[in-house]
Design goal:
It is an enzyme of class 7 (translocase). By secondary structure, the chain is α+β, with helices and mostly antiparallel strands. Helices cover 43% and strands 16% of the residues. Among the domains are: 243 residues, no CATH class; 173 residues, Rossmann fold (3-Layer(aba) Sandwich); 199 residues, Calcium-transporting ATPase, cytoplasmic domain N, CATH 3.40.1110. The N terminus is likely disordered.
Length: 1080
């Protein structure tokens, strides 16, 4: 049994099915180190290496059906206790053996194609044969060949992408030293070295590290959970004492890790070293882990691989991709079923008119074959080829460079989007924070006046040599006003430079040694690491105005003044920011003066009750928030030594409490948070992607509702929504209060119901409660909102929201994202769009369409989506019209000749009619357009008309059916009335009139002529005229050269087409469509 499991596992690695595809890029194979930049010395990290893999369809047979805990020996993958998934990805739908049967199955599982297969097979029965076999098998073969070529091209492209990723080279520690290994060759237990700028694996980390925070690193998790802040991670302590990373192979140690699960916020494990005296056993938690799709700051990382394949967290948080079938295809399929019903009815009527004489059941089948053109076999191939053309046009559009179409089967879906769900970080924003404003109450400094702040900082320092350490220095009375302004600026700048959790890190730049750079605080070698990009932007701003953070560890901080003086501060206490408190604080002691100061910054909603009374805080916070800035209120409070000692004693006692520890600690801290001096307000902007605001305005005017789903904080998401004008200035915002119970959710929903035209902001936890108890009510209210912002959303929650929108509204959805945490949402949506950004290509590879910037979405939908849908609708209805025309003629012919099941046209005529004679003009409709692309972008309201599905509806279908019946009847009855003696004259007159009618109808349908359309019309006409020489079996060649033939064909053609031209003119004259008003 074990050998069977092994064989099946190897078979899966080679020829797996597409049950668990995982999408990744060259940047992303080492999913744990996207852009590492932290350490110089070799940092030993114990990893949880969850590599990308797809699931084996026989995983339970292979012993991988149930997730189990594991013991992993460092550097010894051969000691594994169980089989683990191989570290390969395979995004292909088929393999060498399954390609042909798989493609055929996917084609014939639909009624449309199965119907034509049965028709073709019926011609092997003599009683049912109506003509040559090739008249049925050749069209079917052409359809299948074109489909297989398209599928083969996509499979080859997918194979090459997978091969590129699986062949990436990494360094592995072994007994032979450092060796190179392909990503597909990495196993659980391997010690992998991940270099700077190399995207890393899934890891639990353990490390040697350099100062300032020994054995620690920062990482960013926005690809995994959408949060943009940096998180501090710690190594296993006992590995810090090893001289080099190679010594890991010399010790007997292992990691015991929990079974794989979807929780990205927790981890349970232990690290054991057996050869120690005594043996060392340390616990591992989330603080020791580096999950997939996180970014390490810099340096070199060494880690042991714990998880691979389907067991990685990001894969377990990714929903299985569904095979997307466009709504347009479903509608066309519905119409073909109606046509098939009409085919059956016509066949039964014909047999009924024969009074069911003789072997009537065979006659039914013969009539089904005779009228089989009612359901056009060329419809599917025309639509598929049209989609390929639309995809090519999207890729070649110079105004949206870099756009890639990965799903060429659904471009027309882009023309009917009702809900657009977008990520925030990296999609709407650049994730680059910029300091925009400093407000002191009586004076505000913007970007254009920061030089004044800098001059205050420099002048204050130079005028008062000791003032940086003593804000109350004695100054001449004559400069009192100047001193007051400078003093306030100086206090604000110093507070901003101190109240944060930022750590400066020094890197060697190839010339400067790191230790030397650190010793001399080299500016060119310094980078800032922090738990939030907001904090980094604030510290970078203080550096730009003259006060620089040059050093920090867990107990001290160093600032450098404009004159080069180093100010030393001891960190006495640190109160980190939490989602509940919405503020952070720090107590520091100035080493030169001994002064103790409590600094605090936080959101205005909480700081308003903490700072001393003032009359400007609320107003200015509102003004800055309306500009889309993230506002922080900065304050301070001076403490005496006695006050601090009393606080410390109470604080330590509260932290030792067993019961209600958090409440007691918060109470002690709040005792300090009273009557604090308000220093300033800061405004930071998360820079938006280029042209996000006009793009969102275009989408809104087009009738598309935009929802923002992000894993970021509520305040950050709200600010971005305002800044991007997702929420307009005249719209209110309802922030859904946190709810945990059914009763709370009920009350909050009732409060929300009373508001109108109001944007909704809700957190993921509250959303989960609402969906659990009041799914229908919540979705009903949310769908009425002009905009919705969901923050703190898990990847699976994003996919759930998309699914609920589809189920509750029945409308088409489009999901846009750039990170690994957006893959589930992208795959669940009707159209998934990936943005290739700084976070790699995981989302773009999982998406149906890939763009380089969010602004390209406007043109993708307004121009290409609109054109693709309208062109597909016109093409499909014209193909149906073409088939109904000849079927109507066949019905008239059979009726006249005593309901005989005899074909009107045979052999090459029936094949040539839908191929070389009319194919090019009909297919040239894919080049048609009603308005120019510039007009479509300028008037997005044109897109709104498509949301009702009017280009392809039962009304338009019925109109085309009536046109087909009219023209087919006129042509056939005209030919019967005007022919003289020979039956072949009926064939010649009717078939020529039919070809000319189709060419004229194409011309009537076209709205904007393209030179290729003219070529197609002339080429088809030339092909028909030239082929008449070879069709003497079906057409009297001498007759078609007579004047009698020409005038009869001309009359019939005019009678069939002229009324339609007149009707079109009258309609455009008295009831023109919207677009015609813009083009005239």
């Amino acid at each position: 049994m074990q050998s069977l499991a092994s064989w099946l596992t190897d078979w899966n690695a080679l020829f797996g099915q597409r049950e668990w595809p995982v999408y990744c890029t060259a940047d992303e194979v080492n999913i744990y180190f996207v852009r590492p930049n932290l350490f110089n010395s070799v940092n030993l990290f114990h990893f949880l290496c969850l590599f990308l893999h797809r699931c084996c369809p026989w995983s339970r047979c292979c012993g991988m059906g149930d997730f189990r805990p594991r013991t992993v020996w460092l550097g010894h993958p051969e000691k594994r206790e169980q089989r683990y998934p191989r570290n390969v990805i395979n995004n292909q739908k088929y393999n060498f053996f399954t390609f042909l049967p798989g493609v055929l199955f996917n084609q014939f599982k639909y009624f449309f194609n199965l119907y034509f297969l049965l028709l073709a097979c019926s011609q092997f029965v003599n009683e049912l044969r109506l003509g040559a076999l090739y008249t049925y098998w050749v069209p079917l073969g052409i359809v299948l060949i074109i489909t297989m070529i398209r599928e083969a091209v996509e499979e080859i492209r997918c194979y090459l992408r997978d091969k590129e990723v699986n062949s990436q080279i990494y360094s592995k520690l072994s007994t032979r030293g450092t060796v190179k290994v392909k990503s597909s060759g990495i196993q659980v237990g391997d010690l992998i070295i991940v270099e700077k700028r190399q995207m890393h694996l899934r890891l639990t980390s353990v490390a040697h590290s350099s100062p300032p925070l020994p054995g620690s690193c920062f990482l960013r998790t926005d690809q995994l959970d959408g949060e943009t802040d940096w998180k501090l991670r710690l190594p296993v302590a006992c590995t810090q004492r090893l001289p080099t990373a190679a010594d890991l192979l010399q010790i007997r140690s292992y990691v015991y890790a929990e079974e794989p699960n979807i929780d990205i916020h927790n981890f349970i494990g232990t690290f054991t070293r057996e050869d120690g005296d005594p043996p060392v056993n340390e616990s591992l938690s989330i603080e020791n882990t580096l999950w997939a799709s996180t970014v390490i700051a810099s340096g070199t990382v060494v880690g042991v691989v714990i998880y691979t394949g389907k067991e990685l967290r990001s894969v377990m948080n990714t929903s299985n991709p569904k095979h997307k079938v466009g709504l347009f295809d479903l509608e066309v399929n519905c119409l073909t079923k109606i046509l098939f019903g009409a085919l059956v009815v016509v066949s039964l009527v014909m047999v009924a008119l024969q009074h069911f004489a003789g072997r009537w059941y065979l006659q039914i089948f013969r009539f089904l074959l005779l009228f089989s053109n009612i359901v056009p076999i060329s419809l599917r191939v025309n639509l598929d080829m049209g989609k390929m053309v639309f995809s090519w046009m999207i890729r070649k559009d110079s105004k949206i460079p870099g756009t890639v179409v990965r799903a060429s089967t659904i471009p027309e879906q882009l023309g009917r989007i009702s809900y657009l769900l977008t990520d925030k970080t990296g999609t709407l924003t650049q994730n680059e924070m910029v300091f925009r404003r400093l407000h002191l109450g009586t004076v505000a400094y913007g970007m254009d006046s920061m030089d004044e702040v800098q001059s205050h900082v420099f002048s204050y320092r130079f005028s008062f040599p000791f003032s940086w350490n003593n804000g109350s220095s004695r100054a001449p009375a004559a400069t009192k006003v100047r001193k007051t302004i400078s003093s306030r600026v100086h206090e604000a700048v110093k507070a901003i430079a101190l109240v944060h959790n930022v750590t400066p890190v020094y890197e060697a730049n190839g010339v400067t040694d790191q230790a030397e750079a650190e010793q001399h605080y080299e500016d060119t070698c310094r980078v800032y690491q922090a738990a939030s990009p907001d904090e980094v932007s604030l510290v970078q701003w203080t550096e730009s105005v003259g006060l620089t953070l040059v050093g920090r560890d867990q107990s001290s901080m160093q600032l450098r003044t404009p004159s080069g003086q180093i100010l030393n501060f001891t960190i006495l206490q640190m109160f980190p920011f939490t989602y509940e408190s919405k503020r952070m604080g720090i107590i520091v002691r100035d080493e030169s003066t001994g002064e103790i100061t409590f600094y605090m910054k936080g959101a205005d909603v909480v700081m308003a009750g903490i700072v001393q009374y003032n009359d400007w805080l609320e107003e200015e916070c509102g003004n800055m928030a309306r500009e889309g800035l993230r506002v922080l209120v900065v304050s301070k409070k001076s403490l005496t030594e006695e006050q601090y000692q009393d606080f410390e004693a109470r604080y330590v006692q509260a932290k030792l409490s067993v019961h209600d520890r958090s409440l007691k600690v918060a109470t002690v801290i709040e005792s300090l948070e009273m009557e604090m001096e308000l220093l300033c307000l800061t405004g930071v902007e998360d820079q938006l992607q280029a042209d996000v605001r006009p793009t969102l305005e275009i989408l809104r005017n087009a009738g598309i509702k935009v929802w923002m789903l992000t894993g970021d904080k509520l305040e950050t998401a709200t600010c971005t929504a305002k800044n991007a004008h997702l929420v307009t200035r005249n719209q209110d915002i309802h922030i859904f209060r946190p709810v945990t119970t059914r009763g709370e959710a009920h009350l909050e929903l009732n409060a929300f119901r009373r508001k109108h035209d109001c944007a909704l902001v809700i957190s993921g936890d509250s959303l989960e409660v609402c969906l659990k108890f009041y799914e229908y009510e919540f979705m009903e209210l949310a769908c009425q909102c002009p905009a919705v912002v969901c923050c703190r959303c898990a990847p699976t929650q994003k996919a759930q929201i998309v699914r609920l929108l589809q189920e509750r509204t029945g409308k088409l959805t489009c999901a846009v994202g750039d990170g690994g945490n957006d893959v589930s949402m992208i795959q669940e949506a009707d159209c998934g769009v990936g943005v290739e950004g700084k976070e790699g290509k995981q989302a773009s590879l999982a998406a149906d369409f890939s763009v380089t910037q969010f602004k390209h979405l406007g043109r993708l939908l307004m121009v290409h989506g609109r054109n693709s849908y309208k062109r597909s609708a016109a093409l499909s209805q014209f193909v149906i019209h073409r088939s109904l025309c000849i079927s109507t003629m066949q019905a008239v012919f059979s009726s006249v000749f005593y309901f005989a099941s005899v074909p009107l046209y045979q052999g090459f005529l029936i094949i040539g009619y839908s191929t070389i004679y009319t194919m090019f003009p009909v297919f040239s409709l894919v080049l048609d357009k009603d308005v120019k692309s510039e007009v479509a972008m300028l008037y997005p309201e044109l897109y709104k008309d498509l949301l009702k599905g009017r280009p392809l509806s039962f009304k338009t279908f019925l109109i085309w059916v009536l046109i087909s019946i009219y023209q087919g009847s006129i042509i056939m009855y005209g030919a019967l009335l005007l022919f003289e003696s020979e039956f072949v004259h009926i064939v010649a007159i009717s078939f020529t009139s039919l070809i000319l009618t189709e060419l004229l109808m194409v011309a009537l349908t076209i709205q904007t002529w393209h030179w290729l359309m003219i070529v197609a019309e002339l080429l088809s006409l030339a092909c028909y005229i030239a082929s008449l020489v070879f069709l003497h079996e079906f057409i009297d060649v001498y007759f078609i050269t007579t004047v009698s033939f020409l005038w009869k064909v001309t009359v019939i053609t005019l009678v069939s087409c002229l009324p339609l031209y007149i009707l079109k003119y009258l309609r455009r004259r008295f009831s023109p469509p919207n677009y015609s008003k813009l083009t005239s």
